[in-house]
Amino acid sequence: MLLDRRTLLYAGSSGLALTALGCATTPAPPDRFTSLRGFTKDAQPLTPTHHAQHLARAQKRIGEAGLSALVVEAGRTLWYLSGVAWRPSERPFLLVVPAEGRPKWIAPAFEALRAKESIGAADAELLLWQEDEDPYALAKKAMGEGRVAVEPRTRDFIVRGIEDALGRQLEDGSAIVRGLRMIKSDAELALMERANLATKAALEVAMANTRVGMTEGQMKSIVTDAQRAAGLVNVWALVLFGENAAFPHGTGQERSLADGDFVLIDTGGQLHGYCSDITRTWPCGKPSDEAARALDTVLAAQDAAFEVLKPGAACEDADAAARKVITDAGFGEDYTAFTHRLGHGIGLDGHEAPYLVRGNKTVLRPGMTMSNEPGIYRPGAYGVRIEDILVITNDGYRVFGERAQRR
Q1: Dist CA 78 CA 71 (whole Å)
Q2: Is 394 exposed, middle or buried (0-12, 13-18, 19+ CB in 10 A)?
């Protein structure tokens, strides 16, 4: 059975090892989440000081790029820079970040009280527009005459409105935003580590409660409820049994767990805005020899990628290292069995830069966080994926929690 070291200790001390290995049909304990409660209660959210540091870094990058400002609409980057959480709507709510000086806010006038409350700073420069006025005229006033870039996820109607008001095109702010958010601070890393530890602890509960005959939906409830008990929010889970696991992102067909099936669970949640994303695959009973060899090969491919993940390496190098192991083991070249990229960046978004994929020559730097998740998928038979989240350090990498290992 595939368990990480922490799981082995948990299962052994709790008398659940045989239950997990044999996929027993006895009822699960009534309170299966006792060990998870309070798991994240001491995790500290980012403070206004952290957001101010992000803003200062942004202004430095804006100036270095020769721009006068970056415009950001409601969303994760706005929260990253200011700590303001605002739900996007049809009414523009914008932050204009100049290369120097105080940022300017543009908001609907009828939302003035809520905007002031959300922004918090008494001296914030807030430009308000009435329902019959043009918000983009205020944007033009706030941005001035220099070159202006736009946050890459800004919606098209806002981009067009600003460009019409300015009479010129906005520039792409992707490089600025990507450069900021790819490098995590110690405070961000602490939240990401705790979130991923919580998800791994929830998977321990799932392993211990694996039962022949249970449905994928029943297992999904266990995994998501366990993460909520641990303190995560916006939790999600992809649960696939047997041949369904050959679909990397799932299928519309519900399956019950049979003896000999693989259990594949890809799951995560958020802690104070920061994401977890862990995948584990383990057998219920004895898998086929080929499936067992696929599991061993995926673990070896992940090991090979970890050897490459260090400062100065290119993102594509890790993907190539994992893919070579799977090819050399006879599971097919290129994308035959390992059908997706090796990994993705993670932080405020579950998927963000950098991406570990062929052709991506982005150089790894300390503070970058990403998944390492090779897989092998055989349609009509089985699927295997193992995923851990790591941070690039000054001399290599560090995984958030224990890595999966063969028992």
Answers
A1: 9
A2: exposed
- 247: closest CA among 347, 83, 377, 120? 377
Which letter, b or e, does each residue of 237-259 get, where b requires 16 or more Cβ atoms within 10 Å of its Cβ?
bbbbbbbbbbbbeeeeeebebee
Name the CA radius of gyration of the chain, rounded: 24
* Cα 185-369-372 angle, rounded to 5 deg: 165
Residue 2, class by beta-carbon neighbours within 10 Å (0-12 exposed, 13-18 middle, 19+ buried)? buried
Nearest to 46 by CA among 188, 142, 165: 188
pLDDT digit string, tens, across residues 197-239: 999 999 999 999 999 999 999 999 999 999 999 999 999 999 9
Please state, in angstroms and rounded to a whole number, the distance separating the CA atoms of residues 302 and 188: 25
Under DSSP, is residue 55 helix (H, G, I), strand (E, B) or coil?
helix
Measuring CA to CA, how many Å separate 380 from each of 247, 256, 269, 348?
Answer: 10, 15, 30, 36
Would you tell me how many other CB atoms lie within 10 Å of the CB of residue 344? 20
**Measured between alpha carbons, how far apart are the two ends of the chain, in Å?**
6
The pair of structure tokens assigned to 150 is 């736009």
Q: Which of 366, 372, 368 is nearest to 389 (CA)?
A: 372
CA distances from 180 to 53, 60, 61, 82, 138 (A): 11, 10, 8, 13, 27
C-alpha to C-alpha distance for 204 and 282, rounded to whole angstroms: 11
| Alpha-carbon 112 to chain mean position | 33
Mean pLDDT over 41-70 rounds to: 97
Q: Structure pTM?
A: 0.91
